[in-house]
Amino acid sequence: MRELTVVGLDVDGKHIICESVGGADERADMFRLRIDDRLRSTVRGEGSRVGQTTIEMGGTMLRPKDIQSRIRAGASVEQVAAAAGVDVSRVERFAHPVLLERSRAAELAAAAHPVLSDGPAVPTLLEVITSALMARGLSPDQSSWDAWRNEDGRWTVQLAWKAGRSDNVAHFRFAPGAHGGTVTAADDAAMELIDPDFDRPLRPVAAVAELDFEEPIAPAVPDEEPVRRRSTPRARRSKPSVPGWEDVLLGVRSTGTGSAGQG
C-alpha cells in the first residue's frame, strides 16, 4: 500500500492534492482526493474502518449492521440489493449469518407448542400442522417455514403451503421459553390450522338448499259431466201492432187477437 502526503487544497476547493512518498530516485505521483461526507466523517473518526464495507443506498451509507438489521426484519437479499442498486453478492456475505438465525428461529417455533383456548397443546406446532394438512389431503413436504424479528423483538413465523394452484400462508407469534416455548396464531389461516376440529376444510362450502318444487294441483272433476245447455237464439220480440185509422176514429184499440173492446 503506497503512502500519500497532503500537498494542499485544490483551486476548486473541492479536492485535496496529495503526492506519493518515495525515495530520492523515484518520481512522486500526484493525486486528487475529493472532499465528501465520507472523508469528513472519516477524519472525525466516524467512518468505517478497513473491513467494514459500506453500501450507499439512496444517499444513505449502509453498514453491515444496517444490512443485517434489514435482513433480520424480513427483507430478502434480493430486496436489499435491489434497493441499494448493487450486486447481490455484495449483500450476501453480510446476510448469510442472519439468514441462518432466521432459519433457526423457524425451527424452534416449529418445535414449540401452539396455544389454544384452554392453554398450550401437548403436540408441537409441527405435529399439529402436519396432521391438519394431511387431513385436508395436502402434503406437508410442499410447505416451507420462515421467521423474522419484529420491532418489539418478538419473532413472527410464517408457514407457506400450496393447495392446488393457490399459494397460502399462515403467521404465528413465537415466544421462546421453557419446554420449547409457545406459538400463538396471528391470523385466521393460522387459527384454522391449529384448531382441534381441523378435519373440516379451511374454507367450508355452504350446502345448497334443496328446493321443494310442488306439482300444480289439478282442478277437481265431478263424477258426472254437467250437461251443457244448448244455446238457443233469443226469440224476436214482436213489434206492437199499429192500430188502423178506423180504429182510432171509432175508439177501438186492437188487441192483436181479432177482438175489439169498446171505449
From TrEMBL:
Residues 229-239 have a biased composition (Basic residues). It comes from the Bacteria. Residues 1-174 form the DUF3071 domain. Residues 217-263 are annotated as: Disordered. This is Septation protein SepH. It comes from [Mycobacterium] crassicus. The lineage of its organism: Bacteria, Bacillati, Actinomycetota, Actinomycetes, Mycobacteriales. The gene is sepH.
